[in-house]
Amino acid sequence: MQITRLELKDFRNIREAAVSFCPGVNVICGENAQGKTNLLEAVALLTGRGSFRGARESQMARFGEKAFHLKMAFRDAEREQSIAYDAGGDKRKVSLNRVPLPSASELAGVFTAVVFHPEDLSLVKGGPGGRRDFLDAAISQLKPVYGRYIAQYNGVLEQRNALLKQIHRTGRGKEMLPIWDEQLAKIGTAVSILRKDYLGKLSPLAETVYRGFTGERETFQIEYESSVFREDIPLSVYSEELIGHYRQLLEARVEDDIRLQFTGAGVHRDDLDIRVNGLSARAYGSQGQQRSCAIALKIGEAMLLRGVTGENPVILLDDVMSELDPGRQDYLLNRIRGFQVLITCCDEASARRMNGGKLFTVKGGVFSEVPLDLPAENAL
């Protein structure tokens, strides 16, 4: 997967821009609030997964404008393709190769990208919810049915929690709990198996990236922490035995759940254990180590996507260079092979350590390509 040309009009602070990327590493450099992240957001929007900032489309049009327009030419393993994305107010028009699509979600799987942005540091130093969200989004790119499992599970969980509150308040309705327990157990078991399988494949890839970051000086481990299944219970084949184990746990905790008025165990309580040199990265990792862990997970995700789908997703790295030492910066600039990478940063000097690739500067939403052999003081 390779973006050849991206055109933006009235998107965020970008009045109009057209940028052509190289197949390798592309660095977009500039001060804060000039448009670097906006460009990455536009690319991410074309995956059909929405803004990684959580923004609504009505917030993306340039101030004073009612709509924005994006157009991207890209190449996959088989052919050249194009996406057009026009949105504003309540209207949206999305087309693939000039053929209108019923919704932006139809782009899922057509153009794929893996995004790291500063909020992804919550993967390491935040609560378990962020780590579950990472897992769920990553697995859904490989198995669209997984997203439906999560939606179904959350719906059943909401119903069970409402019933728990009713029982706590009135003492009535306890005989209905087995109905919801059975559904939670069936869906939750499927989710647990898929999460365990995904992490088993992701872990060695992310570990390879992290070791590369550190010049083999540090170790990295990631493990799935299930709130339902002990480590000695194999999570490989969907079975009545696993479903029964899940259901029995819910039944054993029912009095506590009624007292607390929510379901205290299940895949909605799972977590990931991320360790550097055998110690919790969340509790003991430095800022640089935590950032390196999050980036390693994202690049590992891209490597796994490539291995499963045969396509190289584009890697989008927003503001990754800060708090990384020169060795880790060198890894991002020169040692990620086989992927097109778009990196934003503020420090042009660090970007110039690139061996090849393209360097762009941005100021006030205007992008300019800068020859790598041009001295930095003349670049702007």
Automatic annotation (TrEMBL):
At which positions is ATP bound?
A: G30, E31, N32, A33, Q34, G35, K36, T37
Q: Which residues form the RecF/RecN/SMC N-terminal domain?
A: 3-354
Under InterPro entries, the record lists: DNA-binding_RecF, DNA-binding_RecF_CS, P-loop_NTPase, RecF/RecN/SMC_N, RecF_2
Q: In which broad location class does this protein mainly occur, judging by the first location in its UniProt entry?
A: cytoplasm
Taken from the UniProt entry, a GO cellular component term is: cytoplasm
Q: Name one GO molecular function term.
A: ATP binding
Could you tell me the Gene Ontology terms of the biological process aspect for this record? DNA replication; DNA synthesis involved in DNA repair; double-strand break repair; SOS response
SUPFAM superfamilies xrefs: P-loop containing nucleoside triphosphate hydrolases (SSF52540)
Could you tell me the keywords of this UniProt record? ATP-binding, Cytoplasm, DNA damage, DNA repair, DNA replication, DNA-binding, Nucleotide-binding, SOS response
Its localization reads: Cytoplasm
Q: Which domain of life is it from?
A: Bacteria
Q: Which Pfam families does the protein's record reference? A: SMC_N
Per the entry, what this protein does is: The RecF protein is involved in DNA metabolism; it is required for DNA replication and normal SOS inducibility. RecF binds preferentially to single-stranded, linear DNA. It also seems to bind ATP.
What family is this protein classified in? Belongs to the RecF family.
NCBIfam families cross-referenced by the UniProt entry: recf
Q: What is this protein called?
A: DNA replication and repair protein RecF
Species the sequence originates in: Candidatus Faecivivens stercoravium
Query: What taxonomic classification does the UniProt entry list for its organism?
Result: Bacteria, Bacillati, Bacillota, Clostridia, Eubacteriales
